Amino acid sequence: MHIPDGFLDVQTSVIFTGLSAAGVAVALKGARSQLDEKTAPLAGLTAVFIFAVQMLNFPVAAGTSGHLLGGALAAVLVGPWAATLALTIVLLVQAFLFADGGLTALGASTFNMSIVGVWVGYGAFLLVRKILPKNKASIPIAAAIGGFVSVPMAAFSFTLQYAMGATATFSTSTVLGAMVGTHVLIGIGEGLITGLTVSAVIASRSDLVYGWKNNNQSLEIRNA
Amino acid sequence: MRVSQKIRRIKTQENKHHHGHDVGERLYLHRHTFIHALPSHLKIVAALCFILVVVSTPVTQWGAFLAYFLWLLIVVKVAQIPFLTLFKRALIEIPFIFFAILMPFFGSGEKVQVGPLDLYREGLIAGSGIVVKGTLGVMTAIILSTTTTAREILRGLERLRLPVLMVQIASFMLRYINVVNDEMERMKVARESRGFEATGMKSWKVLATAAGALFIRSYERGERVHLSMLSRGYEGALPQEQQSKINASIWFTAMIYPLVAAIIFVAQLLIGRM
Question: Which residue of B has its CA nearest to A44?
Answer without folding.
Answer: B169
